[in-house]
Amino acid sequence: MSRNLVIVVFMLSVILVVLGCAKQQEAVVPDSASGEVASTGQESVDDVAAGISGVSDTEDELDSSELADLDTVLADIENI
Q: 38 near 45, Cβ under 8 Å?
């Protein structure tokens, strides 16, 4: 009797785990080509989305074009 009960409880646990994993929804990935962030209605989520969309602005600000002539400057310093 107890062996059958253990088997039944184990089978029910396995079924619950399988069904729980199967009901997960896929995340919808917005199209990043438009550059606009859709509003979700939740302020904290919208703030994070706005911060993430601002990354392209940061990349432009951290441009390394000023360092292009760094090798020549360092070579001049070595020759001193």
A: no
